[in-house]
Specification:
The protein is built from 14 helices and eight strands. It is of the alpha/beta class. The termini are far apart.
Length: 318
């Protein structure tokens, strides 16, 4: 069963009628093609009307859609071969971060991504996509391995934040993320970072320092979630919509403020409606950017990477 968000409810009744009409036509061998075609056009027009005027909060909701493709879904759809690598060689393996050697269209690279779960058991196993320090140390170990064997790096970002538990802080959560930031600036191989869902705070930034930082159309990227921003400013989650508008956290906002390098289009209605289409588009963008970055010299890539991030937040008065 498809899950409908609140603002998608007007489409749910039409789509239910469409399915009923198709079933009735098949069971009774009756030609309803004209009526079906008219209803499909109505659904398409309504979907366009809804999704061309989304608020920032509605895009946040889409980024969290339970049917949205996660890192493992993209790995299955775009990789010809994937060998997962485990552990940080210090504490343990962190299931919230997946990493390994991937082959896509004849190009090999190191793929690292944050993984949520589809059901309660998976969510508990993946810690709801919130990595511990060992997850970030595993990611850095794999990045260094990629650098050693001259393999480009691709990271897929989808997390509500790094795990804030006491045990995570005891094992050095802040230090692990800070070390990743420092080391990623100096990586000698091309690095592409893509926000595929939620990009929250240092939990996202810990694997998001790259030559190309991209966002899918219906994702968000910010130092804090709208709910937590609302809780701090208004002492309540009830103002999350206003917080999302004020924070300007969508892909368009990030691109306008020069905080990312590009936006990857999603199918009309969101990535959850067509995993295959979204995976093919992601694959195309990855291969296209790797080709461009490989043509740049190693030192120039590092210099451009540092310069790009150092320019963020800088105001130059005329």
């Amino acid at each position: 069963m498809r899950t409908y968000l609140d603002f998608e409810k007007p489409m749910s009744e039409l789509e239910r009628k469409l399915e009923e009409m198709k079933t009735l036509a098949k069971e009774n061998n009756v030609d309803f093609s004209d009526a079906i075609s008219l209803l499909e056009n109505n659904i398409t027009n309504l979907r366009k009307e809804i999704f061309e005027n989304l608020t920032r909060w509605q895009r946040v909701q889409l980024s969290r859609h339970p049917d949205r493709p996660y890192t493992l879904d993209y790995i299955e759809l775009i990789c010809d071969e994937f060998i997962e690598l485990h552990g940080d060689r210090q504490v343990r393996d962190d299931p919230a971060i997946i990493g390994g050697l991937a082959n896509v269209g004849g190009q090999s690279f190191m793929l690292i991504g944050q993984q949520k779960g589809r059901n309660t058991k998976q969510r508990q196993h993946r810690n709801f996509g919130m990595p511990n320090p060992e997850g970030y140390r595993k990611a850095l170990r794999l990045m260094k391995l990629a650098e050693k064997f001259n393999k480009p790096i691709v990271t897929l970002i989808d997390t509500p934040g790094a795990f804030p538990g006491m045990e995570a802080e005891e094992r050095g959560q802040g230090e692990a993320i800070a070390r990743n930031l420092k080391e990623m600036f100096m990586l000698k191989v091309p690095v592409i970072c893509i926000v595929i869902g939620e990009g929250a705070s240092g939990g996202a930034l810990g694997i998001a320092i790259g030559d190309r930082v991209l966002m899918l159309e219906n994702t968000w990227y910010s130092v804090i979630s709208p709910e937590n921003c609302s809780a701090i400013l208004w002492r309540s989650w009830d103002f999350k919509e206003q917080a999302a508008e004020a924070m300007k956290i969508t892909a368009k906002d990030m691109k306008k403020n020069k905080l990312i390098d590009g936006i990857i289009s999603e199918p009309l209605g969101g990535a959850h409606l067509d995993h295959n289409w979204m995976a093919e588009e992601l694959k195309r963008v990855i291969l296209e950017n790797i080709t461009e970055l490989t043509a740049i010299t190693e030192q120039d890539r590092i210099d451009q990477r540092i310069e790009k991030f150092c320019a963020m937040g800088v105001v130059i008065e005329s």
